[in-house]
Design brief:
Order of helices and strands: HEEEEHHEEEEEEHEEEEHEEEHHEHEH
CATH architecture of the largest domain: Beta Barrel
Structural class: alpha+beta
Number of strands: 19
Largest sheet: 8 strands, mixed, barrel
Helix content: 10-25%
Number of domains: 3
């Protein structure tokens, strides 16, 4: 097969992977979070990306929230589409596919690099939510914690440092902000064993999927309400930072890139795939595809290899 044929075959494969540019009609209602069930506990890829047709009144944020996706995710997946005026009839990619983080599959696992949290109802049943995280200077802390308190209709006592920050902008914060529509914590909050940090709702949902908070984790109001009713005190919360996630779906190897630092953007290609995978017997990695995934930095799983001799290898061989 010549190089043109390989490119054509690969393009057709990726076209099918994205559901042949499926054109959905977006309704104004918010979609319920989906529970993904892994058929094989060794798999690490959930969901399927697809396209929708934007309507004149939609922004990418509207489309993203409808499907449980945040600002950066929609921007990464649609670099040529205007965030605020995508245009009536424009094709918008919904990147509703994810490689699971490299972490124990229990409790809550949050990956700061992708601004996404995974709720493992079991090792093979997963819900996932877009989140907003701490901005520069107020970074959400990496570590392993537990939920120590569940709070309905929380009040907010802003630290003195935050009150001074707002005062410098001419905004006077009260010592205590009562529960209600003006409370930045929303209607539900989960306090971590590092008690200064909460997972909570927000009265500014368009900040979900961005680095905008003072360290706490923000969720869409509908998402935190759903999660609040499902997790108990004592649930583990692992916060990590993985700009490169590698995982299997059957005999196919995928990588997802969410790189936001110079170190990640310039990481040597051969160091991106863990050696125990790249050097395993029968595993073939297309390093050009790994490089392309790093450069595109699309936040969407990309097929980069597989197991030679498997039933799917014939198709992989045509692509690579």
């Amino acid at each position: 097969m010549n190089s043109d044929d390989r490119r054509t075959t690969r393009a057709r494969f990726l076209h099918r992977t994205v559901l042949c540019a499926f054109a959905a009609v977006l309704t104004p209602t918010l979609a319920a979070a989906e529970v993904y069930r892994l058929a094989d506990p060794n798999d690490s890829v959930i969901g399927t990306p697809f396209y929708v047709k934007a309507k004149a009144e939609h922004t990418l944020l509207d489309i993203g929230r409808h499907h449980g996706l945040g600002y950066d995710e929609m921007k990464q997946a649609n670099p040529t589409v205007d965030m605020w005026v995508p245009g009536d009839g424009s094709d918008v990619l919904v990147p509703a596919q994810h490689v699971l983080p490299d972490a124990p599959r229990e409790g809550l696992v949050m990956n700061l690099a992708e601004k996404r949290m995974y709720h493992f109802r079991s090792p093979t049943e997963i819900e996932t939510f877009s989140v907003g995280t701490g901005r520069e200077g107020w970074e959400t802390p990496v570590g392993t914690y537990k939920i120590i308190e569940k709070i309905k209709d929380p009040t907010w006592t802003p630290p003195e440092s935050i009150r001074r920050e707002h005062a410098a902008k001419g905004e006077i914060l009260p010592a205590v902000v009562p529960a209600g529509p003006d409370n930045p914590l929303g209607q539900f909050a989960l306090r971590l064993s590092n008690p200064s940090y909460l997972i909570h709702g927000t009265n500014k949902p368009w900040g979900v999927g961005m680095q905008v908070s003072h360290g706490c984790t923000r969720m869409y109001p509908e998402d935190i309400e759903r999660l609040f009713g499902k997790v108990e005190k004592g649930t583990s919360v692992r916060i990590l930072d993985q700009p490169f996630k590698v995982g299997w779906l059957g005999d196919q190897l995928f990588i997802e890139v969410n790189a936001h630092t110079d170190e990640a953007l310039n990481k040597p290609v051969r160091d991106i795939i863990p050696a125990e995978i790249a050097n395993a017997d029968g595993v073939v990695v297309n390093w050009e595809e790994v490089k392309r995934a790093r450069e595109e930095n699309a936040g969407l799983p990309r097929l980069v290899g597989g197991r030679r001799g498997s039933m799917s290898w014939h198709h992989l061989d045509m692509i690579f």
